[in-house]
Write a structure and sequence with these properties.
four-stranded mixed sheet; 20 strands; 24% strand
Length: 459
């Protein structure tokens, strides 16, 4: 390969502990002494990976009361799901029309005036969608690589983040899983499989301080394969979450563990992949569909059952190209209005994914969901590289939209909008250990129809 370069070093933001600025007392206001002891033991485990970050739930005792009230509200939200916008959404729209800069600029006064928005609108300025009447003293920032274009910085509230954990508990109960607290086991393990990743050990004060962590299964994250196996075996996680691809990697480790359930997200879970996971580990698999911008949207608990809308202060519709709502049973673009996050209430947010809505109440669901596909690339040295690692490099070099294709002979062509083409080529060649052709385009439309960021790999 011509013009060889070293493997990419840590990307900005991924440097080990480079962003750890809070104390544990600030990260865990409600964590008791026994929970702190478990957290310390997890961090200092003899076979633990080199943690890159330190994260806490930031929840106070008052937050816990707020979340308990939210859990009591959930059944009524699920029962009321329908094809028409709910009364609480219509009423709240009137307030948001006065305090959200984007809506004020458009002259929106009521629900009927609300146009659809997309990720491109957020990319132009997330602040335009933050209500002016909300105190920002508890903002937590997170990034979303999304499925079209450059990364976004999303403002979240700690309570909004914790709702995902409470929601997961409800979803597991719905499939007969008794996810009760067990201090001797890790409550939740989030797995990825990439060289550069946010990894951390943490605790869940909603579950009595039970431990959780996010780890990379990639060999580079561990001292050796034995350390990885020893750590994961000792953790014996109750629930394991990850992408469809990463969960396959976890299952292949053949660990002497007994998870209660697996939760797949981020990309499509193919029917054969679900069947393999269920057979290999003997536990139910939940396929959770959602986006960072609006949170969890729907969940499929069995092959072919469709993705049932999750109970949240969110309303889902399906629209055509013009942004007009289509009838139930008609396929179109999934569009979400979510008020769970007080810092980023989004109305009529187009997800870029397709499907049709059917049913009412607790049976309202998305059928024929066409979301993000899992893709891996074949490196010249035989490694399999997940598309998320290419995403990191594409964003590092300022690319706004792209299409990366690997042909059957292994050759890779990247067509991109914006960014440093030469720097990108060198980085991708180092990552994939093979030549890469980089072509620039003048507009996202030049990448072809559909989502402006795609990956295709034939090998």
């Amino acid at each position: 390969m011509s013009d060889p370069v070293a493997r990419p070093t840590a990307l900005p933001g991924y440097e080990p502990m480079g962003a750890a600025v809070r104390t544990d007392a600030e990260r865990f206001p409600a964590l008791d002494p026994s929970g702190r002891e478990r957290l310390d033991a997890l961090r200092q485990h003899a076979h633990a990976p080199a943690w890159s970050h330190a994260c806490g739930d930031l929840l106070t005792d008052v937050d816990h009361l707020t979340l308990e009230a939210w859990r009591r509200e959930v059944p009524s939200l699920a029962a009321a799901a329908s094809a028409e916008p709910p009364a609480w959404l219509v009423a709240e729209t009137e307030r948001l029309a006065r305090v959200v800069p984007h809506l004020r600029r458009l002259g929106v006064r009521a629900w009927a005036d609300v146009p659809t928005i997309s990720r491109a609108d957020l990319a132009r300025g997330v602040a335009d969608f933050v209500p002016l009447d909300v105190p920002l003293d508890r903002v937590v920032q997170g990034t979303s690589s999304g499925s079209s274009g450059s990364a976004l910085v999303i403002p979240w509230h700690p309570v909004d983040i914790a709702k995902d954990l409470a929601l997961l508990d409800l979803l597991l109960t719905g499939v007969g899983v008794d996810w009760r607290e067990d201090p001797s086991r890790m409550g939740l393990l989030s797995v990825v499989d990439q060289e550069q990743a946010f990894t951390y050990a943490s605790a869940m004060t909603l579950r009595g301080g039970q431990s959780m962590s996010r780890v990379s299964l990639h060999a580079s994250a561990w001292a050796d394969a034995g350390a990885r196996r020893a750590f994961l075996t000792a953790a014996d996680p109750q629930v394991v979450t990850g992408s469809a691809l990463t969960l396959q990697t976890y299952a292949a480790l053949d660990l002497p563990c007994s998870p209660l359930a697996l939760v797949s997200g981020a990309v499509d879970l193919a029917t054969p992949a679900r069947a393999h996971l269920e057979t290999t580990l003997g536990v139910p698999v939940l396929d959770l569909y959602g986006l960072r911008e609006v949170g969890p949207v729907a969940c499929e608990t069995a092959t072919g059952a469709g993705h049932v809308l999750v109970p949240r202060r969110a309303w889902v519709e399906v629209v055509d190209e013009a942004g007009d709502r289509v009838a139930d049973g008609t396929a179109g673009e999934i569009t979400v209005s979510s008020l769970e996050n007080p810092y980023l209430p989004l109305l009529r947010y187009r997800t870029g994914d397709r499907g049709a809505l059917v049913g009412t109440g607790t049976e309202r669901r998305i059928v024929g969901l066409e979301g993000r596909s899992a893709v891996t690339f074949a490196a010249g040295d035989g490694r399999r590289v997940q598309s998320v690692e290419l995403t990191q490099q594409l964003q590092r070099f300022g690319v706004r939209a792209w299409a990366v294709v690997q042909d059957a002979d292994g050759s890779v062509t990247t067509r991109c909008l914006g960014g440093d083409a030469d720097g990108l080529r060198k980085a991708l060649e180092a990552l994939l250990d093979r030549p890469v052709t980089v072509e620039t385009v003048a507009a996202a439309a030049d990448l072809g129809p559909g989502k402006p960021r795609r990956f295709t790999s034939a090998p």
